[in-house]
Every structure is written in structure tokens, then in C-alpha cells.
Specification:
6-stranded mixed sheet, binds coenzyme A, alpha+beta
Amino acid sequence: MFEHWGAPAGFAVVVPRDDGAADLDGPFVEPELWRGGIGRKLVEEAALFAQALEARELFASANSRSEPFYAKCGFKPAGRLESPHGPISVMSRALV
Ligand SMILES: CC(C)(COP(=O)(O)OP(=O)(O)OC[C@H]1O[C@@H](n2cnc3c(N)ncnc32)[C@H](O)[C@@H]1OP(=O)(O)O)[C@@H](O)C(=O)NCCC(=O)NCCS
């Protein structure tokens, strides 16, 4: 979780997988704080946390609005899924 002036500003969750990778859930940032660098900080923190868990790759599910954000954070397209809310891009980032 990330705080801004003592108030919760955003969070991300790392979920280890059985295949040696990890899933990134979120990040979610308070809308009034978007584009201030908090989302990237959360991704970097999540990547470090996943590495500490010895995950080799971090996966994220992106919709059309969050895809450019993940691309800026070093994620590459890794497939597509269908969801009730439309297509979702699976994106991944190698952890070295
Ligand atoms: C996606 C989200 C986490 C981004 O958080 P943020 O704090 O605004 O992101 P940052 O300010 O750290 O942005 C990092 C980079 O991505 C870019 N970026 C962020 N949102 C973007 C968007 N919607 N479209 C294009 N680029 C975007 C920023 O401009 C920045 O680029 P730069 O390094 O060239 O300046 C935030 O918009 C959010 O919580 N959205 C709703 C929840 C969501 O969709 N979460 C992700 C999938 S579940």
C-alpha cells in the first residue's frame, strides 16, 4: 500500500503461482492522484516483492485503458483472454 500525506493512495497485490511466476493484482490508485507516479512505484515495489518470493515473471491482466500504463512499466503482451466485460490483455514482465 502507498500513502500520500498519511492517507491511503493506492495498493497492489502479488499472488505467487504454482508455475514459478506471480500475478499482479492491481495496482489501484485513487483517481485524484492519477499520473503522479504512484502506479509505477507500486509496480516497482510489487516486482521487488515478487523477486523476493523467487518468482521469475510477473503477470498482469490489462484492459484497453491500463494497457499503455503496463507497457510504460516494462510489461510486454503475453496473450489475450475473454471476460464478461470484454477482451483482456495478459501482459508479463521478466524478473531478473
Ligand atoms: C492504471 C493506474 C494504476 C495508473 O496509476 P498512475 O499513478 O496514474 O500511474 P503513473 O503516474 O505511475 O504512470 C506511469 C506511466 O504510465 C503512464 N500512464 C498512466 N496511466 C495511463 C493511461 N491511462 N494511458 C496512458 N498512459 C498512462 C503515465 O503517463 C506514466 O508515463 P511516463 O513515465 O512516461 O510519465 C491508475 O490509473 C488506476 O488505478 N486505474 C484504475 C485501476 C486499474 O485500471 N488498474 C490496473 C488494472 S486492474
